[in-house]
Prior knowledge:
This protein is an alpha+beta fold. Helix content is 35%, strand content 20%. It has two domains: 16-198, Phosphorylase Kinase, domain 1; 214-385, Alpha-Beta Complex (Aminoglycoside 3'-phosphotransferase, Chain: A, domain 2), CATH 3.90.1200.
Amino acid sequence: MTHETHTRAASPKGSLQWLIEVLGGEVDGPSIPMLARPNSANPELLIPLSSSAVSAAALTRRHDGRSLREQAISELALLVTRTGQLRRIGGEVVDFPATATMKLIATELGLSGLTPAIGIGPPRRNRKPSVMLITPAGRTVAYAKIGWSALTRNLVANEFDWLQRLDGRVPEPFVIPSPLLSTETPSGPDGATKTIVMTPLPGNRGRKYPQLEASEIKSLARSLGTRRRKVADLSWLAPPNSQGSPEDDLSKRLAAAVVRVRDQHAQVELETGLWHGDLNRWNTVTSGDSLGVFDWEFAGADRPVGQDYLHIQFETLRRSGHRTPNEAIETFLQQMDTERDPQRTVAIDVYLADLALRESRLSGQGWDGPMAGYREPLVETLEDRLAP
């Protein structure tokens, strides 16, 4: 007698079925008609079609990094939604089932009748489902992130931890989401899943906060207090625990460059505090006279006060124009390392090392993203700046 074993093939990552599995799988409950864009094989965005109010809420995007073109597209999408023509903008209509994670969130928050709008977004290394939870009246009451891999589980856990630490403690003009729920489910397509839920940040339509002053950014870094630290005592400034394969020459060079930053500047004292980790206009939203700051996944402590300011300048350069990674880094240094201030030079070296370490951590995480080509140029820049 022959026995055959049938093993279920894994759902392609990023597909509709994969998303359902990440959200804990299908459970009893009503399904929701959704528009999967661009399609169910690659649903970067799932827009609920249960009502025009819910659909309009799902399409509301008000971060401060939106270009005029993106704002115009958003306004057009809202107009199409209100006139009942949303299904005609392209995409695939699917029935999205009730899932274990959505049911758990509703139960824990004591809310019923919530409709999810789900974004996976374009491929990138920290790609994960994010969910807007919307009432029948079209009000977004919560926002969830789901970590499905070792990396993304750690990122969402780190974000929730920092939101708890900072709740009620950030200075004006800043506001941040309030943490509501953190939970873990034991099974998913890649092991356990980690779900965090927070309050949404309201945004003004069309208005953007003026460019942040360096003093404002430094006040955010001082939210939990600061301390003077020698570069040699920055525990995070160390070669990565996992340096890739033994044949990965770039990992070895990164490890050597990080050690060189620490050793050459060992006795330099810096004021250190909190850093957001990815502060830029794409992670902020203007609300009245306040500035909402979200996406705290990469937040950390013991960073030089002002490192967020450096990151804003770098991200603005990286995202504007059509610069290569080398050109973006070179332009950044030309603009920021001009004061002949030894402390500024040290802070820039520490920032570049921090960014290179992050790139090493993200390397090989499944999907490439716009920063994927920066690891080698960052290492090369550190080598050049710290050459004997």
